[in-house]
Amino acid sequence: MRKETRMINELISKIKKTGAPIVVGLDPMLKYIPEHLQKKAFEQYGENLKGAAEAVWLFNKEIIDNIYDLIPAVKPQIAMYEQFGIEGLAVFQRTVSYCKEKGLIVIGDVKRGDIGSTSEAYAIGHLGKVQIGSQSFRGFEEDFVTVNPYLGSDGVNPFIKVCKEEHKGIFVLVKTSNPSSGEFQDRMLQMEDGSSRPLYEIVGEHVAKWGEECMGDSYSNVGAVVGATYPEQGKILRRIMPKAFILVPGYGAQGGKGADLVHFFNADGLGAIVNSSRGIIAAYQQKEYAEYGAERFAEASRAAVLAMKEDIAGALGSR
Fold first, then answer.
1. Rounded to an integer, what distance in angstroms lies between the CA atom of residue 245 and that of residue 207?
2. Cα 59–103–135 angle (5° rounding)?
3. What is the CA radius of gyration of the chain?
4. Residue 76 CA from chain centroid, whole number
5. Residue 228 maps to which CATH number?
6. Which domain holds residue 25?
């Protein structure tokens, strides 16, 4: 394996090994964390930011310990940690490091998008190294991050530069899973030939072009985010971005299911990785996993991963 193509190749290798094109979103909120974990954390640190952050860590660790052997990757959403301030960010970093110790690919869901030196600083902080005097240091050290492209190439190019230097990757927001995404992403644009096309298609074409600069063996280190809630758009974007890996949010809690995902994958069975967040980490709160109870919440998460794996495999096998 060539070093310069390491990260996308490593992700594909882990997907093949686990047979699970699945990424678990580590998006903890206090309402998801069982009472016994909150009590333990608050007894140690108090009902404050430190105590809340500790509860998040205890919750994350137990889930990771129960699912790391089933999946290739996790996707911590940084906002869920930032709400607890510096203490939360420390747990974000602790979670990233622990997941990497367990052999997991880490996709930092940071949705950064700015221009110039600001975008470069985001890229360095999450994917690269910052120079301090004669030494360099890594900040959060994820393997991939999500990037908002709606400021144009000025906002994306600094990430691509760092990806080339560090052999890491990005997932660019193209067609997001939320209901109001169409307010902007579906806007029809007049083309030079007189035809009209939606904005998300134009963004998808840019992703394909950016990806040509960062190719792995079969796929690019520049991927795309396309929601499971929009399967028809996913079918179109798969054709537009044949070499881009697609990160697919919206499975489970947002309504997406295995049958919606078929067209996100290429004929080789690769090309997409499907995210589920609260459908996995808060599985014990769902009716079908209620038998596990709060004390065995992480076992419920494992069962939910196995069910998701079966659902996706069944859908892909039937196409």
1. 10
2. 100
3. 19
4. 7
5. 3.20.20.70
6. 3-317
Tokens representing residue 281 in the block: 């980490």
Q: Is 271 left (phi over 0), alpha (psi -120 to 50) or beta?
A: left
Residue-wise DSSP of 42-72: HHHH-SSHHHHHHHHHHHHHHHHHHHTTT-S
* pLDDT at res. 21: 95
Q: Which entry of 40, 61, 100, 111 is annotated as an active-site residue?
A: 111
Q: Virtual CA dihedral for 231, 219, 198, 122, nearest 10 degrees?
A: 110
pLDDT in tens, 82-115: 999 999 999 999 999 999 999 999 999 999 989 8
What is the rounded distance in angstroms from the CA atom of residue 72 to the CA atom of residue 66? 13
User: Cα–Cα distance between 16 and 223 in angstroms, integer?
Assistant: 18
pLDDT in tens, 257-293: 777 788 899 988 899 999 999 999 999 999 999 999 9
Q: Are 32 and 59 in contact (CB under 8 A)?
A: yes
Reply yes or no on whether 111 is catalytic. yes
Residue 133, judged by CB atoms within 10 A of its CB (0-12, 13-18, 19+), counts as exposed
Total domains in the chain come to 1
Two tokens at 237?
């974007």
Side-chain half-sphere CA neighbours of 189 within 13 A: 12
Taking 80 as the threshold, does the pLDDT of residue 76 lie above it? yes
Q: How far apart are CA 160 and CA 220, in angstroms?
A: 11
Token pair, residue 289, equals 């996993």
